[in-house]
User: Which sequence fits this backbone?
């Protein structure tokens, strides 16, 4: 087992879905990711929070096997996102993005973090993703995520990141935007040619597409009839994906990547059952094992 | 092995997709269905064509193990549909629907068809679906399809059909419409309560959801990077689904239903690679077996 490092956002989110609404609930890619990954392996978080960030939220992370030595606390407020979902819950409508302390975030790794073997660059400015990579000594596996905003505004820098990562994990819609292709299968193929050794297209309720030079691996999400809040499902997927690989302590192995994708699905299926990180906060390994058995039943002919 | 009966449309379609366009190509649910199902078991077709229906198109069916004794030829023109696809190909935009001889279609089964064991009622007026069922003596398995038009305009009659069929095969969008649910998992659950013993939600490029009292079985479509024309993929799925069950000669067996869904995916993956029924017309059992092996590789952890 090796340690994991995630660089991403810590936030308070205000979310409205057909199931209800929550105000200023704990969120951000680094929170979802680390709460999922830390079920598998010790996880180090690099990010920034404001003075309003609750001690209880910080302690919750440490109680869940997350190392918060890389978290910076800065004058000002924590990143805040407000959004809503309508209809089929596949797309979030952003109502407000208050970057606050996140606007001037400059990821600086504690010396003790520089030897981390499994590194995930969540959806932040590609320039900052590169800055993190420069501080890492000999990573075994590097993954990244991105979003439409960076694809539109920072494509050359983003492509530089893609040339340096092993795995890109990306939403289906954004995979089409990045590749200019009209389906996830063609998109994954095109993105593979941009540098990464593997591409994982996250398809929400439809699961994922993993593509590497050894071909495609495609499975659906675990079936959930009552999706309460899809926020963070993609970051949860990435967390479990990295967790699974770090726990197995392997780098680029097709069988391990497949298992990692399945664990991505399993943990994401818990996240969507409750608002924010509520489901992840209390998740046990026994829950994961039970769902793995249930998932196996769902996909086995 | 038992015979299959399909009642549905035979048409000439004019289709435009990002890959090109075709004018008055052979189409209609009964053509797609029977070209797929007849690879597995002898298939009887009940439908109506106009005087313009080409002898070569009729002979093509008979050359593919399809019994056309139940086809009526009527004065007038064959059903014509014109449609186009844009962007991600998930939704057809109908440009014209000329019912022609299909408008006064009254399905009458040849006496020799009345003992058919596997019966599929493709997307036609639910009143006609009921009329077909009245003519069948002791079916082993009855399936049906439907569409938004009948859900909106003929719901009571459609519900009567649902109370009499074993399996409903339905598009994802229409499953949500029929169930008033916002995802396919919840929709399948709701529809199961309307009568059928199993529901198959067809999700296009995302595969299918099979739901019965024994739970969910969910798998993705076979990955196709270059989808040329999605028309008929759902009817092809239904054809292979029924073909697989009739070949195995079983009625309601969970393992057989799962295999039937997989065969639905396999054959639909060929259909979308070419315009109209072009791919199905020349398909061999060896092609199906090769794709089954490839699909297995794609979904096996």
Assistant:
């Amino acid at each position: 087992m090796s340690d994991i490092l995630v660089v991403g956002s810590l936030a308070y989110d205000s979310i409205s879905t057909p199931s209800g609404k929550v105000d200023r609930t704990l969120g951000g890619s680094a929170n979802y990711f680390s709460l999922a990954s830390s079920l598998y392996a010790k996880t180090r978080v690099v990010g920034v929070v404001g003075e309003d960030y609750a001690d209880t939220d910080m302690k919750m992370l440490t109680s869940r096997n997350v190392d918060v030595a890389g978290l910076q606390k800065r004058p000002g407020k924590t990143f805040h996102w407000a959004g809503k979902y309508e209809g089929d819950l596949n797309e979030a409508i952003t109502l407000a993005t208050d970057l606050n302390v996140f606007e001037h975030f400059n990821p600086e790794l504690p010396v003790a973090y520089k030897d981390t073997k499994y590194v995930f660059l969540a959806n932040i400015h590609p320039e900052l993703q590169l800055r993190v990579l420069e501080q890492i000594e000999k990573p075994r596996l590097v993954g990244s995520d991105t979003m439409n905003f960076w694809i539109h505004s920072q494509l050359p820098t983003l492509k530089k990141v893609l040339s340096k990562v092993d795995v890109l994990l990306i939403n289906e819609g954004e995979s089409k935007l990045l590749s200019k292709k009209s389906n996830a299968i063609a998109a994954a193929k095109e993105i593979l040619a941009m540098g990464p050794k593997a591409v994982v297209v996250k398809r929400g309720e439809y699961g994922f597409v993993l593509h590497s030079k050894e071909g495609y691996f495609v499975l659906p999400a675990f079936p959930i009839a009552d999706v309460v809040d899809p926020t963070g499902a993609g970051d949860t997927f990435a967390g479990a994906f990295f967790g699974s690989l770090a726990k197995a302590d392997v780098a680029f192995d097709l069988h391990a990547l497949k298992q990692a994708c399945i664990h991505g699905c399993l943990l994401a299926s818990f996240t969507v059952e409750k608002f924010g990180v509520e489901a992840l906060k209390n998740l046990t390994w026994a829950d994961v094992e039970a769902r793995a058995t249930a998932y196996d039943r769902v996909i086995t002919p």
